């Protein structure tokens, strides 16, 4: 059990530390980041209940399971936590902060989900879980936070609303596409999911550099 807990937590903590420490100019208060991570853990339970209830009432095909049950529901509730707990907080004072907090809630969610999976199927799955599901949640969080951070500091109200819409829908679509690949290509999914993850990593790192350059503390 101790090994399972350690293997479940380690990827989430490692990835959160990585994205937290990539804040070049002013790292966020650690207690708020930890609180957001814990909110992500707690979020698993209501999301699981809602997903189970919907699937009991409605017959979803592969597309529905991927894009609605997994993508839209999970990303919306992560967004909801970030928006209503830290978005208006005084410490959310830089575009990169959106990435830190969105990644924190996403990795909290992924960590408990990872524990349930490893507890059920064995610790031998730990490496693949770290490379795929846990990492993907972090990268969906980067995408969400990128648009949230831009929306927060956008001067145009109409552009801000559009960026806010993107902060929910683009991570939801990416998450749905990820799950659709897994559900529809079970035997050969690595041939498709590997380039998908590589593109997601490259795009996320590019977005990180972009918001860092927009920081009010960035040198001119």
Chain-wise SSE layout:
Elements lengths: L1 H20 L8 H28 L4 H26 L7 H27 L4 H27 L4 H28 L4 H25 L7
Helix pairs in contact: 1-4, 1-5, 2-3, 2-4, 3-4, 3-5, 3-6, 4-5, 5-6, 5-7, 6-7
Question: Can you describe what's shown?
Answer:
The chain has 220 residues and is mainly alpha-helical. The protein has one domain. The chain has helices at residues 2-21, 30-57, 62-87, 95-121, 126-152, 157-184, 189-213. α1 (2-21) packs antiparallel against α4, α3 (62-87) crosses α5 and α3 (62-87) runs antiparallel to α6. The longest helix has 28 residues, at 30-57. It starts with a helix and ends in a 7-residue tail after the last helix. The model has no long low-confidence stretch (mean pLDDT 91).
């Amino acid at each position: 059990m101790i090994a399972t807990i350690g293997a479940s937590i380690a990827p989430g903590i490692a990835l959160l530390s990585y994205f937290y420490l990539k804040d070049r100019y002013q790292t966020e208060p650690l207690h708020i980041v930890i609180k957001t991570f814990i909110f992500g853990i707690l979020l698993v339970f209501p999301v699981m209940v809602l997903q189970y209830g919907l699937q009991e009432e409605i017959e979803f095909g592969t597309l529905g399971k991927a894009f609605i049950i997994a993508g839209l529901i999970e990303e919306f509730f992560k967004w909801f936590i970030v928006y209503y707990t830290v978005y208006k907080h005084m410490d959310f004072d830089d575009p990169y902060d959106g990435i830190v907090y969105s990644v924190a809630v996403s990795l909290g969610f992924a960590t408990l989900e990872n524990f349930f999976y490893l507890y059920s199927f064995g610790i031998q799955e730990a490496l693949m879980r770290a490379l795929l599901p846990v990492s993907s949640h972090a990268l969906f969080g980067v995408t969400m936070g990128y648009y949230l951070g831009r929306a927060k500091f956008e001067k145009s109200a109409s552009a801000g609303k559009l960026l806010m819409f993107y902060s929910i829908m683009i991570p939801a679509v990416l998450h749905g596409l990820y799950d659709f690949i897994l559900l529809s290509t079970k035997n050969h999914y690595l041939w498709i999911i590997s380039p998908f993850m590589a593109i997601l990593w490259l795009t996320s790192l590019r977005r990180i550099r972009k918001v860092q350059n927009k920081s009010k503390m960035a040198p001119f």
